[in-house]
Every structure is written in structure tokens, then in C-alpha cells.
Design a protein that fits this description.
The chain has about 325 residues and is α/β, with parallel strands linked by helices. It has one domain: TIM Barrel. The chain contains twelve helices and 13 strands. Helix 4 packs parallel to helix 12, helix 7 crosses helix 8 and helix 10 runs parallel beside helix 11. The radius of gyration is 18 Å and the shape is globular. The structure holds zinc ion. Zinc ion binds next to loops.
């Protein structure tokens, strides 16, 4: 794979909202991200699409998507994320929505921007670029146009940063996304999923369903060492089990001088529904998060199953 040089974050065009995030990060402060969107939409009564999951909600239920963004902002989120995780050009083409790629992605940015505007708060907007869809059969080369297309639409529509939600992806896919992201001129964050293998090593991989095997790709420390050749922005452990997130943060900190954070999940996926489990209270989550911050994590939020109540609980850690 061709390796492009890593652009300096400072050289990138920071928006006013991102400048304040960057300043806080440089001053070792804690940034609060939002929680999951799909699961929270479902909790609020939105219909999940069998194929596109929550991807159609920005067009079908924009008021509800806006409300959830507003709920997260009111709960204390410094950064909210567009509902574009499942509107990747690859998945949309695959599922017959090829004519709506721009419309869905742009609408998601607009709805999130309206929520920020309504709040009158200094909140940054992250554009989610992901690997949702049937990526694995394609091979990494065929993924490149889709990544570039979603990056171009979201950055063109004015998000403050890109978050590459490479969750559940193998290292070569993550590296391909990172290479594509050098084409955009705004800050880039990376999120990946981790699991623990039978020998208790933290591995790049995932397991989000209750009855399927755990996918184990490679040692997470190896992943970090390779990702940092392509990326100098924040790296977040995401859509991973809360119970292994602390160790994953430590593994990332040990191998990476940049910013590290986390937004794990709670519950499991049963297509197209996120199933909630009631095994940890928001205060329980706050206590976990405190230990992660102690170990150097600076950006904390939640993924599927971590909702407004948890974000509100952890927002007391903002400083
Ligand atoms: Zn998730």
C-alpha cells in the first residue's frame, strides 16, 4: 500500500468549534462525545430499516434525529456525530439507494447543524465515515471511491471534523480509510473496535452479536504502531465491550503519543435492532470512565446502547 505522509493537524483548517476542542485537548482536558444514535433512535420509536439500519432516519424522521442530537448537547456533549454511519456510498448502492447518497448524507449534516444552532452552545460536529455495508467481499481497492465520496460530501457540507468509524474493520481497511482521509482538509479522528482473545491479549476485532463468533484480527498494539504511520489525530476504542475498554486504552497509550479516547457499547446487535441490556447504571459507567481518564483517555462518549443518561452522568468530568 502506498503510504502518504501524515499531514500536520495544525496545518489543517480548523473551524471555530474545533479550535476550542483542540485547545482543550492540548490542555489535557476531557472532551465529551455523544452516545449512540441508532440505538437511541430506536429507543425513541424510530423504525429501523432491515438493510440501512438507522441510515434512513435523517430523511424519514429528521425531527427525531435532531431531538436526539439536542438531547446529547443538553446532556453535555462537546462533539456530536452525524447520523451517517450507515449511509456509506457502498451500502447505499448495494441496497438500491444509489440516487440518494448525497441527499441522505447532506440531510444528516443539516439536521445536526440545526441542533447545534438551536442549542446556542459551542459544539463541534463530527462527520461519521464508516465501513457499514458489505465491505469485506469488495477488497480494499474497491472501497476507496466510496470512502472518498462520503468524505467529500460530509466535509463539503461543513462538518468540523471527520471521525473514521472503522469499527469492526480489519487493519488493511482501516489503513485504506486513513489514506483516503488525507484528502480532506479538516481534522480526522479514528475509531476502531477491540476484543480480548483466549490468551487475554487485547486484539483489533469485534463481537457485537450475542450468538456469533468473536472476530479477532491482530494484536491491537501492532495495529496502533501501524496506524500512527498514517495518522496523528485522536484514536478511540469504540463499539467495544466496556469491560475490555480500559485495557485497550492502556495498550493504545503505551504505543501512541497522540490523543486517546473511547466510546464503547452496551448490549448487542440483532439485525436491525440494538438490544439493550441493563447491566450497568449511568453511575457505574461514570466510574469506569473515571478510571480510563486516569489512564490517559481524553475523549469519552458512548456507542450503541450508551445513551443520553450515560452522557449526562459522565459530563460532570468536563474540566
Ligand atoms: Zn456501536
Amino acid at each position: 500500500m502506498e503510504i502518504k505522509s501524515v499531514p500536520s493537524q495544525i496545518a489543517r483548517n480548523n473551524t471555530v468549534s474545533y479550535s476550542s476542542i483542540q485547545e482543550k485537548l492540548e490542555n489535557k482536558k476531557t472532551i465529551i462525545l455523544d452516545g449512540g444514535m441508532g440505538a437511541e433512535l430506536e429507543k425513541n420509536g424510530a423504525k429501523m430499516d432491515e438493510k440501512m439500519w438507522c441510515g434512513k432516519c435523517s430523511v424519514d424522521h429528521p425531527d427525531l434525529v435532531r431531538k436526539i442530537h439536542e438531547d446529547y448537547i443538553n446532556a453535555g456533549a462537546d462533539v456530536i456525530t452525524t447520523n451517517t454511519y450507515s449511509t456509506t456510498p457502498i451500502s447505499m448502492r448495494q441496497y438500491g439507494y444509489e440516487d440518494s447518497i448525497e441527499e441522505f448524507n447532506k440531510k444528516s449534516v443539516q439536521v445536526a447543524k440545526e441542533a447545534i444552532k438551536n442549542s446556542n452552545k459551542d459544539v463541534a460536529l463530527a462527520g461519521s465515515v464508516s465501513t457499514f455495508g458489505n465491505f469485506y467481499k469488495l477488497g480494499v481497492k474497491a472501497m476507496i471511491p466510496g470512502f472518498n465520496e462520503q468524505l467529500k460530501i460530509l466535509s463539503g457540507e461543513g462538518v468540523d471534523l471527520i471521525i473514521l468509524e472503522a469499527m469492526s474493520s480489519q487493519a488493511d481497511i482501516v489503513e485504506t480509510m486513513l489514506n483516503c482521509s488525507t484528502n480532506v482538509n479538516i481534522p480526522v479522528w479514528l475509531s476502531v473496535s477491540c476484543v480480548m482473545d483466549d490468551q487475554k491479549n487485547i486484539m483489533l476485532g469485534y463481537n457485537d452479536t450475542i450468538d456469533s463468533d468473536t472476530h479477532v484480527y491482530e494484536n491491537f498494539e501492532t495495529s496502533i504502531i501501524n496506524f500512527k504511520k498514517l495518522h496523528n489525530g485522536p484514536i478511540l476504542v469504540a463499539h467495544s465491550d466496556i469491560n475490555i475498554t480500559g485495557q485497550a486504552i492502556q495498550a493504545a497509550k503505551k504505543n501512541y503519543d497522540g490523543i486517546v479516547g473511547a466510546y464503547p457499547n452496551k448490549g448487542y446487535y440483532e439485525k436491525p435492532h440494538w438490544r439493550f441490556v441493563d447491566d450497568m447504571t449511568p453511575i457505574g459507567y461514570l466510574n469506569e470512565v473515571k478510571s480510563w481518564i486516569k489512564n490517559g483517555a481524553q475523549i469519552i462518549g458512548g456507542c450503541c446502547g450508551i445513551g443520553v443518561d450515560e452522557i449526562k452522568a459522565i459530563s460532570i468530568l468536563k474540566n
